[in-house]
Design brief:
With 609 residues, this protein is an alpha/beta fold. The chain is built from 25 helices and 14 strands. The chain has 4 domains: 92 residues, 2-Layer Sandwich (Gyrase A, domain 2); 134 residues, Rossmann fold; 85 residues, no CATH class; 203 residues, Isoleucyl-tRNA Synthetase, Domain 1 (Orthogonal Bundle), CATH 1.10.730.10. Strands 7-6-5-11-12 form a 5-stranded parallel beta sheet, sandwiched between helices. A 4-stranded antiparallel beta sheet has the order 1-2-4-3. The longest helix has 25 residues. The protein is globular. About 2% of the residues have low confidence. Bound molecules: arginine (ARG). It is an enzyme of class 6 (ligase). Forms part of a macromolecular complex that catalyzes the attachment of specific amino acids to cognate tRNAs during protein synthesis. GO terms for molecular function: arginine-tRNA ligase activity; ATP binding. One of its GO terms (cellular component) is cytoplasm.
Length: 609
Amino acid sequence: AAEQENVGNLKRKLAKLFQLSLDATVPGEPDIEPQVAACTAKFGDYQCNNAMGLWSKIKGRPGIEFRGPPAAIMKNLPQSEMIESCSVAGPGFVNVVLSKNWMAQVRLLWLQNIQKMLVDGIETWAPKLSIKRAVVDFSSPNIAKEMHVGHLRSTIIGDTLASMLEFSNVEVLRRNHVGDWGTQFGMLIEFLFEKFPNFEDVNETAIGDLQAFYKESKQRFDVDAEFKDRAQKAVVRLQSGEQMYRKAWAQICEISRREFDQVYQRLGVHLEEKGESFYNPHIPGVIEALTNQGLVEESKGARVIFIEGINIPLIVVKSDGGYNYASTDMTALWYRLNEEKAEWIIYVTDVGQQQHFDMVFKAAKRAGWFPADDRQYPKASHVGFGLVLGEDGKRFRTRSTEVVRLADLLDEAKTRSKAALIERGKAAEWTEEELEQTAEAIGYGAVKYADLKNNRLTNYTFDFDQMLNDKVKMPFPACLLLCEGNTAVYLLYAHARICSIIRKSGKDTEELKKTGKIVLDHADERVLGLHLLQFAEARQVVEEACSNLLPNVLCEYLYNLSENFTRFYSNCQVVGSAEETSRLLLCEATAVVMRKCFFLLELYRTLMA
Ligand code: ARG
């Protein structure tokens, strides 16, 4: 009976039993979904949480009204070999104690599963997705414009999603869809010609601040009609491929690119640039194909695709005959599906672009690029995220500028974590280089984790003090920065502590893995063991985070893992106990899973510091 039982299965089985009970308890209310959860309390293994919501529904139902829904749910629960006993807890819960015999069989399988992971590697716990190749379109800043905190969020979230898919054996094309095309290049090029007649020798030091350069040329464009005229002509000349214009354009892109690369390097993010310009040659063909399908219509001089339920159409050719953001995105989507054969195409931008992507996807669906059933591949998903807010609750800004520059922000994270390290006397212990590297790793890691742990759709408040929270001071073997709360540093500390427990035991875990056995007799061992297993399970952590594109699910898992470990460690003696071997293996398994989480959340460099 215990064959194939994993935690998810077990929960589903219990849910089925409770479904039968709920149907009998409140007949005529078919839509009540059983809520079954593991309980950490000592009264049981699992609990059903439906009762509280039923008090209003049982009024006037004799029998139930008297003793209340929990008792009724318990009474109506069918007999099962799984269940040893049940009890009512307050007005809202029914607790279940699972059968010892049945669980012993199940648990044996679980133990084998953990042990197998330890021997064969964490890859045995990778989710199985049904696709081979995906595109993750993320970061995607615009040339010569500011790379702002929105792009930072896109970079961090996109990178993590890509890593999770890669862990799931999906080949990921990490695409930087930089804004390297468009009318703004006319004015930039003309301005470059004007300021630097020998523009080909110009490098970033000569131009200085590219954003300032952009602003200056925009000012010119707005007030000087003659310049504006030249700039507009420059766009045409660029687009028709005139060599000098192409060169100037490439020059500007290159300078921007170097700036972006510095940020990627600091964050340890890898992605491949295929900017808007890459898709240009394919646009006419794609529009023609859509036109031949009868999808493109004439509207106010422009050529557009109408989409059901949305009152504005998707403009694919502007009234002046030029292409726009949407023409490029339709073409990039076509390219990714047909040339790159990607089955899942994921776009990471702020929620402000949701309607744009909604329209692009729906237009593609009208063209038959996607199956009618949204759950089937190939499919496209927009991963939107909320605003970054300052402590005043308004859009995040620094004192002086309108937008926060990414480089400044990373500088500040580093400065702060360095100050914290110096405060702990690290300047005397470490070389300047070690100090720098550790400060960077911790500072950037803190920024990443603070972003990822939130549900991406909610706005989040950027707060350095909170993300580098270091209220509790204790010795720390790896980076000696101690933290409390749901922060990167706290989690890294938890991991370092586990490693030091194993180290201090003097045992070789490689040997233990082969010969030792894990037992989960203590309640806190069991909770920890079950939590570890959830990492691997279908519809559990990584797969859920992947399928629903929600990195915070993984953060939450990681945080709970370290909490469960702490509870286990404070109640179960490891070194020198009768269960030493088993408990060391449990420590090791926890450390392995934590490291995988750090890797997926791109905190690995921080860990190595
Ligand atoms: N460059 C755009 C921006 O900064 C983001 C591009 C997102 N990707 C795409 N395929 N449209 O807002």
